[in-house]
Write a structure and sequence with these properties.
homodimer, membrane (chains A, B), about 80% helix, mainly alpha, CASP-like protein (chains A, B), transmembrane (chains A, B), transmembrane helix (chains A, B), disordered N terminus, elongated
């Protein structure tokens, strides 16, 4: 006959074969929180660089009627617009990430949120890259002309704005990879919670 | 007591709960083949457009010493190089797709193949888009100058080359989405075979 002591021990011993659902869930929640924190960092970096790029481009006029103005060049308007869009988007995505980290749920329904994030990350990353590439081509063309010879600061400031835009693109691209992974988790596991 | 007839019927009746592994595998193979055929179509389109873009750019010089030449512009050299790289890459990826459709196995080991495809699709899509955006900015700048006023054909041909490059990018982007899905299948299911 088994002693009561032995029986109690056996009952209290956790089974290694059947992990507790609560334990699993806690690990998933912690993993997801770390993952969301990483996305938040990338989105914050993307926001900062895009905002800085927008500000550098907007303030890029020298005041005189003969001086060049960024609004005279289509490619610079494109750089400004793309960076402004990405800055606004990154700001709202940051808020959504903070909400998710604090509340544990997505702002939109889960399926909409994961598709929204990935789709917009992809489109805006392509948009920002094409704007910055167009801006780079324009700056390189201007470099051999009077515009850059007479008003050097205009070209330097344009170059800085574009470089900041490229940095913003880099972090947006990283966010896009992570949101793609989250979407894949959702498609294959039916939940944005990681493996 | 159960009759032998009843017993036999029960044994012969196929169970709806446990599908035959062979049936599943055949469906997966067929799905994968259709999927690979779709990728092959996109890669073929991407190859055609990039090659056409490369040819249009290379032949874009008017012969005279005063006439503009595509090699005088960095952005056009970038358009040529990016399209040439994508054309070569798409050609080899087409061969790899045909191999996979015919033989049923990947050219490289499966894990390398899915990562190689997705990584290169992403990088080359970004490369091609930035080249075409830079080319567009240059063409728009040139449009107001003597280069386009005197030699209209040069600017028109550059524009066509860039437009073809954008079409190539579109199909490369679609391939990238599909190869991303295949990679996700591999990461989550341990096999490139679809769900």
């Amino acid at each position: 006959m088994r002693s009561p002591q032995f029986h109690r021990n056996e009952e209290n011993r956790p089974s290694p074969r059947i992990p507790s659902p609560h334990f699993n869930s806690t690990v998933s929640v912690q993993k997801l929180r770390s993952f969301n924190t990483l996305i938040l960092i990338f989105r914050f970096a993307s926001f900062c660089f895009s905002l800085a790029s927008t500000v550098f481009m907007v303030t890029n006029s020298r005041g005189g009627s003969d001086s060049p103005n960024w609004q005279d060049f289509d490619a610079f308007i494109f750089v400004f617009a793309a960076n402004a869009i990405v800055a606004v988007y990154s700001f709202f995505e940051m808020l959504a990430s903070v909400w998710e980290i604090l509340k544990g749920t997505t702002v939109l329904p889960e399926i909409m949120q994961v598709w929204f994030d990935f789709g917009h990350d992809q489109v805006f990353a392509y948009l920002l890259l094409s704007a910055d590439a167009a801006g780079t081509a324009l700056v390189m063309t201007l470099r051999g002309t009077d515009t850059c010879t007479h008003v050097t600061a205009f070209c330097v400031q344009s170059g800085i704005s574009i470089a900041l835009g490229f940095a913003g693109f880099m972090f947006l691209g990283l966010s896009s990879l992570l949101s793609g992974f989250r979407l894949a988790c959702f498609v294959f596991n039916g939940s944005r919670f990681l493996l």
